[in-house]
Specification:
The complex is a heterodimer of chains A (422) and B (360).
Chain A lengths: L1 H20 L13 E4 L5 E7 L6 H17 L3 E2 L2 E9 L4 H12 L4 E6 L3 H13 L4 E3 L22 E3 L4 H15 L4 E6 L3 H17 L2 E7 L8 H10 L3 E3 L6 H11 L7 E4 L7 H6 L7 E5 L5 H13 L9 H18 L1 E2 L5 E4 H9 L4 E3 L2 E3 L13 E5 L2 H4 L7 E3 L12
Parallel strand pairs in A: 2-4, 2-5, 5-6, 6-7, 8-9, 8-10, 10-11, 11-12
Antiparallel strand pairs in A: 1-14, 3-4, 12-17, 13-14, 15-16, 17-18
Helix pairs in contact in A: 2-10, 2-11, 3-4, 5-6, 11-12
Chain B lengths: L16 H27 L4 H32 L6 H22 L1 H4 L1 H28 L8 H22 L15 E4 L2 E4 L1 H22 L1 H11 L1 H6 L4 H26 L10 H14 L4 H23 L11 H15 L15
Antiparallel strand pairs in B: 1-2
Classes of the chains: A alpha/beta (422), B mainly alpha (360).
Chain lengths: 422, 360
């Protein structure tokens, strides 16, 4: 008798579960890669995949805050459903991206992902996300490989990938333009750290610099985790470089900057980095040797909308954004939420059905979306930014003392450098 | 530490392929090192001044390795176990003290009384690391003292992760940096050679600490007891030595040196202080201890300095001459190749002794 009871109750449980997971109105879905069906009380789930711990945490916090602001702008609701934000720490590494991608893809309710921050994460996570029928919009991936379809050129693009960040084909080129034409340097040394981001950025910089007429006298790399840069710096010193371009992450960029100033022959060399070190902790940890270093990075033209965003940030998150991709993350989140709003099919009882391919089609067809970072138009491989929202910044003593962000000294297209502060 | 030389009998008919391959390997490695170095030196790419500054930076880095390596070697000498959590002992002192250092910096104490402030920081870090090392010994290793030797080894690896993530929980995972000390800015000019002041200071501070340890082990009663325990635990017990106490002292001394190394490292390379900072120096210091002959105190000091210098000079000297691109990415290859080399040429380490079956 007891056994029968157990068998019956197990059966009942299975039946109950079956009813519970049976998609509501699944028969209506005509989307090629499936739909997300939500009952009248189910939340709309969007995910983030950002680097929120470790040396690059400020990059992740910067994006996460902007996502929160964008959701808060809509009072946390979309189509009468609560917006639920779930997320994973992708650790700014390929392994972290893979693990985070798998965990997010395992949640079938996720409609779209804001992330990742580091290109290495995206390279690993993209196949998983794309396979799961989801889409991701990155606020800060800049590696050219991610929106390149040709595998011979290192392309890894897959359907469902979009970014509001600039492609490094732009960033590398403006860095070369600035170094050669504005600073008048002719001998370049580049250093990367083995990450897809830094490696491709320095390659673009070196190629463009050579095309402009300059000479690349040294190309080298450091390891993530190195603290002693004296050997590579001595090698650079011997090469006679006039400018060192090292688009590497913290803390290696901090060690590199400090030790460059200690290396005989490099006391006066021009140092230039990129957005990987574009964080308020960089001048703070590096101290005086950071003064005079140029950083290329995301630049949001001052506008009323941007000021309003900063005010909202202070309200929702508090303080000022710690890095430079918050506007990109804000635009990315709004594009995703607009897409959901536009393609969702709402039933009379309030339950909704969102087609996954329809979401992708909406974003792929986005034209002239007025975002904080400019007018965004997505091309067929997911590049939505034009590269106009870039500038060269110069770290000054004020940044070492706690000011952030540093002053802009050059915008693409300018004939000469501006004085910091003008 | 007892040694019974193992007689080496070599007869012609004893030819073995293992010996042949090892000899061939020795020849190839020596040839590569000589060719690479000769090419670099003949090319004249680097000036004499540059070699000197690399060498001095290597000495400073090496003296930090040496301080950590002493902790490995002391524990191995007494317990015959590798304390793989020692890198985390180093981290605990360095990471905790960064907050005190910033407090000193804000109050102006660090720059008005640099020597005194740094000594206080070193003592504080030493105490933190010592406490961690003592807890480690008491909670993780002592209950396992009679267990097979593999057990404490695996426990040490577990303890290492435990400490990393405990400190991550305490202080978060962001990178911090030690404040700059004004007195240590600037550089020393000897002729045309330019050396940052901080490097000789680091080297001398480490030498003083190592000298103190050497004096403790060789000249004091406690040191005598330590040496006796490392020689034979049972006989020492019969002579009235409290074994547990001596083992605790050993961990305490190793921990203090590691904590001091944490602050000295913070003076030398101020950036990159976080919960994971002990891992790489820990592995390097272990390499240094094996290089010098594990269990041998002078060996650990020599091994550390040697490793620091070879890491600084090696990539440019050897790999550059061989035309290997990205030679600086292969810095760690040099460190671990040195380990392989020493194990091929002198399995007992530079200053190590051949051990009897009982101890090995």
């Amino acid at each position: 008798m007891k056994r029968l009871l157990v068998v019956l109750s197990v059966f009942a449980l299975v039946a109950l579960l079956g009813v519970a997971v049976m998609p509501v109105g699944a028969q209506d879905c005509t989307d090629e890669i499936g739909c997300v069906e939500l009952g009248p009380d189910d939340p709309i789930t969007v995910a983030y995949m950002l680097t929120i711990s470790g040396g690059t945490a400020s990059l992740g916090e910067d994006s996460l805050g902007a996502i929160e602001v964008a959701i808060d702008d809509r009072d946390g609701e979309l189509l009468g459903h609560e917006i639920e934000l779930v997320g994973e720490d992708s650790l700014c590494s390929a392994e972290g991206g893979q693990a985070a991608g798998q965990r997010i893809a395992a949640n079938p309710q996720v409609l779209g992902i804001i992330g990742s921050n580091c290109s290495s994460e995206a390279v690993a996570a993209l196949p998983i996300i794309s396979e799961a029928g989801m889409l991701m919009i990155s606020p800060s991936n800049t590696s050219p490989r991610l929106t390149e379809t040709d595998p011979d050129k290192g392309g890894v693009w897959e359907p469902g990938y979009y970014r509001t960040a600039h492609n490094d084909l732009f960033q590398g080129a403006i860095a070369a333009d600035f170094a050669y034409n504005i600073l008048g340097k002719t001998k370049l040394a580049t250093v990367h750290d083995g990450s897809p981001y830094a490696e491709s950025l320095q390659a673009v910089m070196a190629d463009t610099f050579t095309e402009l007429g300059g000479e690349v006298v040294f190309q080298g790399a450091v390891n993530v985790g190195d603290t002693d840069m004296s050997a590579i710096l001595t090698d650079i010193s011997a090469s006679g470089a006039e400018i060192i371009y090292f688009p590497i992450f913290q803390p290696e960029s901090e060690f590199f900057t400090v030790q460059a100033r200690e290396t005989p022959g490099l006391e006066e060399v021009t140092l230039m980095g990129a957005d990987a070190s574009f964080a308020d902790t960089f001048p703070e940890n590096t101290g005086e040797p950071a003064v005079g270093k140029f950083l290329s990075g995301p630049y949001v033209a001052e506008s009323e909308a941007y000021d309003a965003f900063l005010a909202r940030w202070d309200e929702v998150v508090g303080g000022v954004p710690p890095s430079g991709f918050h506007a990109h993350a804000y635009d990315a989140t709004n594009i995703l939420l607009n897409a959901i709003e536009a393609v969702a099919v709402v039933a009379d009882d309030g339950s909704i059905s969102v087609g996954r391919q329809a979401l992708r089609d909406y974003i792929s067809g986005l034209t002239d979306y007025p975002g904080l970072t400019g007018n965004l138009t997505c091309n067929e491989t997911g590049d939505c930014a034009t590269g106009e929202a870039l500038a060269v910044f110069e770290v000054t003593q004020a940044e070492v003392d706690g000011n952030w962000p540093p002053p802009v000294v050059w915008l693409p297209g300018m004939d000469a450098m501006m004085e910091p502060g003008s | 530490m007892a040694s019974v030389p193992v007689a080496r009998r070599r007869r012609f008919e004893d030819f073995s392929w293992v010996d042949f391959i090892i000899n061939a390997l020795r020849f190839i490695i020596i040839a590569l090192v000589i060719i690479g170095s000769a090419n670099t030196l003949l090319s004249g790419r680097f000036t004499f001044e540059q070699w000197v500054s690399l060498f001095v930076a290597g000495l400073a880095q090496g003296s930090i390795y040496a301080l950590i390596a002493l902790g490995y070697t002391l524990v191995y000498g007494i317990l015959l176990m590798i304390n793989f959590a020692h890198g985390e002992v180093f981290m605990s002192g360095a990471l905790t003290t960064v907050f005190l250092a910033h407090a000193f910096d804000r109050s102006g104490f660090l720059n008005s009384q640099p020597l005194l402030a740094i000594i206080i920081l070193i003592i504080f870090a030493g105490l933190v690391s010592m406490s961690v090392a003592l807890l480690l010994e008491r909670l993780a290793y002592r209950p396992l003292r009679s267990a097979p030797r593999l057990v404490p080894l695996i426990t040490a690896i577990g303890a290492s992760f435990f400490l990393q993530y405990t400190f991550r929980g305490f202080f978060g995972s962001q990178f911090r940096s030690y404040p700059a000390v004004d007195a240590l800015k600037g550089s020393l000019e000897i002729g045309t050679i330019n050396i940052p002041i901080v490097q000789p200071v680091v080297f001398i501070a480490a030498l003083v600490l190592m000298g103190g340890l050497y004096w403790l082990v060789e000249r004091t009663k406690l040191g005598k007891a330590m040496r006796a325990v490392s020689e034979d635990k049972e006989v020492s017990r019969l002579m009235g030595i409290d074994i547990d106490q001596i083992i605790m002292f050993t961990f305490a001394i190793g921990g203090m040196l590691a904590g001091a190394a944490g602050v000295i490292n913070g003076l030398f390379r101020p950036q990159g202080v976080n919960f994971f900072m002990g891992f790489v120096p820990g592995i390097k210091a272990f390499t240094a201890a094996v290089l010098g002959g594990i269990g041998n105190i002078r060996g650990a000091m020599l091994g550390g300095l040697f490793l620091g210098v070879i890491e600084a000079v090696g990539p440019n000297l050897i790999f550059n001459g061989l035309g290997i691109p990205g030679s600086n990415q292969l810095k760690d290859v040099i460190a671990f190749t040195m380990l392989v080399l020493v194990l091929i040429f002198r399995p007992q380490g530079l200053l190590g002794e051949r051990l009897t079956e009982k101890k090995a």
